[in-house]
Structure formats: structure tokens, C-alpha cells
Design goal:
By secondary structure, the protein is α+β, with helices and mostly antiparallel strands. The protein is 26% helix and 14% strand. The protein folds into 2 domains: 36 residues, no CATH class; 71 residues, SUI1-like domain (Translation Initiation Factor Eif1). A hairpin with an 8-residue loop joins strand 1 and strand 2. The N and C termini lie far apart (53 Å).
């Protein structure tokens, strides 16, 4: 069997692989390419210091998902608007109440297992009145 050749990337392909991947976040204003060498440095994200909306104004969505998780079901909570610290605190509280593992990534709270109905009930009880399943 001949040895497997490693794929070599051209500069543009390497750029796309690194910058355009899901984990590498680009600019929030939609700019993809620029001749300006410092184009990442001239953009300031307005949402970094955004205040957390009150609980009754939050439009949280709770749904089940199993995509790219080897068939395991997780409960996703999306739509939180506010500081990352507040999102982390809410995620920790939900994980504690469910007694399950999980994480907070990309503005989503991920809880391992099917806890959709329980989470909706808890969120509405805590004052998140616009929560939908």
C-alpha cells in the first residue's frame, strides 16, 4: 500500500481553513476580506459590554438536539441577551437543577439529556416569561 500523502494547503486555502472555521470567529460586521493588513484590529464589537436584559424581556428558546453528538440527546437553551457571566451563571444553575453535565458555548446553554419540559417550567418560575419550547 503506498504511503498516504498529506494534503498541502495554498495560502488562501489555509486562510479559509483557519479563519472561516466554526471555532475561529471573524468580525461581527460581515467583512470577510480586506486589503487592509490590520482589518481585525479596527473593528470594535458593540455587544461585548451589553447589559443583560431583564428576565421578563428575555426571549429564550429551549429545544432538543442530537446533531453531531453521536446520537446523544442534549437540551439547548438559546436566545440569551446579555453578559457572558450572567449566561454562565444561568447555565450553572440549570445544570445543578437537572443534575446533569453540560456547557455554555457560543451563546447557548447545552445540558446533556432530555430536560426540555423541566427547564421550561423552571425558567418560567424564575421570571423568564417569554420562554418557548
Amino acid at each position: 500500500m503506498p504511503p498516504v500523502k498529506k494534503k498541502k494547503f495554498s495560502n488562501f486555502a489555509a486562510y479559509n481553513y483557519i479563519v472561516m472555521s466554526k471555532k475561529a470567529k471573524g468580525r461581527g460586521d460581515g467583512l470577510v476580506w480586506s486589503t487592509n493588513q490590520d482589518y481585525f484590529n479596527d473593528y470594535e464589537d458593540d455587544n461585548k459590554d451589553a447589559d443583560t436584559l431583564p428576565k421578563d424581556k428575555q426571549k429564550l428558546r429551549v429545544k432538543l438536539d442530537s446533531k453531531q453528538r453521536a446520537g446523544k440527546i442534549v437540551t439547548l437553551v438559546e436566545g440569551f441577551v446579555g453578559k457572558d457571566e450572567d449566561l454562565e451563571a444561568l447555565g450553572k444553575e440549570l445544570k445543578t437543577k437537572c443534575g446533569a453535565g453540560g456547557s455554555v458555548k457560543d451563546g447557548q446553554i447545552i445540558i446533556q439529556g432530555d430536560y426540555k419540559e423541566k427547564i421550561i417550567t423552571w425558567l418560567k418560575g424564575w421570571g423568564y416569561t417569554l420562554t418557548k419550547g
